[in-house]
């Protein structure tokens, strides 16, 4: 059960490290071998994806395309000091939307197959992410932009994020990464996007708060507030305190404790957290959650409205409009598709 739960929440690496520190005391031999086997596979996968990442970054750089590495092994390195400790299934890059057509061409020239066709890109279709798979392997690159990552309530501050980016030592070379301030805000927005349904995202924020004393929390709070993600930040920190007994950053204690909406959201998240992605919230709960996470009132309603009316590739596929431009009808259909998908959940 423990290994299954750890895998469901993508924290098997953290569990393995903690059990190793305890010399696997009282852990059955079969479970120990199974966990160690999974970690060896994760390390090998990390090595293969790191080589893939370096090839893509080199190719993008030669084409004058600016990219930032996000999530996955970079998160693992920043939070835990080990790029293979945290589970991940792909490598994620952040680019500007204006560069996506050129980036897709470069990815295809390297042998990747895109999930979004050139004609859909030319038509202005915006998916949840641009996925590129290398045929015959389990290697996958996902590209995000300020338009695909639509979960920042006031919009992703893409230009500011590129201006604040840093070079992070990674496996013998440096890769472009978000500033610590932007990483924390991004992780909190990402966790909020997926209802904090996996323990991994809570662990990431708590680990950064604990292991990165150089974080400027006043600057982080300002950055979160400017893009409407202040509550997402307080929820992320409060979940770490409640679920993992992590200490709140001293300069954030008063801000977090003052946000009663964050406290209510945390209580709600804690109720569905044990079920992971296996028990998604009902349509009504999703809507109320989005409103509250968007800081309630008119702001929250605007946030819910934008997410409810912004078509993704699921809407194109359902309507059979993957190739052409039909923003109006995709927008009209989206709420009905969401009602069909989530309306029957209890």
Account of the 3D structure:
The chain has one domain: Beta Polymerase, domain 2. The chain has helices spanning 2-8, 12-21, 29-62, 72-80, 100-109, 118-122, 158-164, 180-193, 199-211, 217-226, 230-244, 253-258, 260-272, 283-293, 297-308, 313-319, 327-342, and strands at 68-70, 91-94, 113-114, 130-133, 140-144, 166-170, 173-177. The longest helix is centred in the N-terminal third of the chain and has 34 residues, at 29-62. A hairpin with a 2-residue loop joins strand 6 (166-170) and strand 7 (173-177). It has a 5-stranded mixed sheet with strand order 1-2-5-4-3. Strands 6-7 form a two-stranded antiparallel ribbon. Helix 8 (180-193) crosses helix 10. It has 346 residues and is of the alpha+beta class.
Task: Summarize the entry for a quick read.
With 346 residues, this protein is α+β, with helices and mostly antiparallel strands. The chain has helices spanning 2-8, 12-21, 29-62, 72-80, 100-109, 118-122, 158-164, 180-193, 199-211, 217-226, 230-244, 253-258, 260-272, 283-293, 297-308, 313-319, 327-342, and strands spanning 68-70, 91-94, 113-114, 130-133, 140-144, 166-170, 173-177. The strands form two sheets. Strands 1-2-5-4-3 form a five-stranded mixed sheet. A two-stranded antiparallel sheet has the order 6-7.
């Amino acid at each position: 059960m423990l290994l299954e739960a750890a895998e469901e929440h993508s924290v098997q690496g953290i569990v393995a490290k903690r059990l190793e520190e305890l010399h696997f005391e009282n852990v059955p031999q079969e479970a120990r071998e199974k966990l160690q086997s999974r970690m060896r596979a994760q390390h090998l996968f990390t090595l293969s994806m790191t080589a893939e990442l370096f090839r893509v970054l080199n190719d993008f750089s030669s084409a004058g395309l600016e990219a930032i590495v996000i999530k996955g092994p970079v998160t693992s390195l920043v939070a835990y000091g080990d790029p293979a400790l945290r589970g991940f299934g792909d490598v994620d890059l952040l680019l500007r939307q204006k560069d996506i057509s050129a980036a897709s061409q470069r990815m295809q020239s390297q042998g990747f197959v895109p999930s979004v066709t050139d004609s859909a890109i030319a038509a202005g279709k915006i998916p949840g992410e641009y996925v590129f798979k290398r045929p015959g392997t389990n290697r996958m690159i996902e590209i995000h932009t300020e338009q695909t990552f639509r979960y920042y309530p006031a919009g992703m501050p893409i230009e500011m994020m590129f201006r604040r980016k840093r070079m992070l030592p990674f496996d013998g070379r440096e890769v472009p990464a978000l500033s610590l301030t932007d990483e924390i805000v991004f992780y909190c927005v990402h966790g909020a996007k997926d209802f904090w349904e996996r323990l991994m995202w809570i662990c990431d924020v708590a680990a950064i708060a604990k292991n990165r004393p150089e974080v400027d929390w006043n600057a982080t709070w300002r950055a979160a507030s400017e893009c409407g993600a202040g509550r997402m930040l307080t929820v992320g920190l409060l979940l770490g305190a409640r679920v993992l007994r992590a200490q709140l950053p001293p300069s954030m204690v008063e801000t977090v404790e003052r946000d009663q909406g964050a406290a209510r959201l945390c209580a709600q998240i804690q109720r569905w957290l044990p079920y992971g992605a296996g028990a998604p919230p009902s349509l009504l709960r999703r809507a109320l959650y989005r409103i509250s996470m968007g800081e309630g009132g008119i702001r929250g309603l605007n946030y819910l409205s934008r997410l409810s009316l912004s078509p993704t590739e699921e809407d194109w596929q359902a309507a059979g409009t993957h190739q052409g431009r039909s923003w109006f009808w995709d927008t009209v259909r989206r709420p009905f598709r969401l009602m069909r998908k989530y309306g029957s959940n209890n």
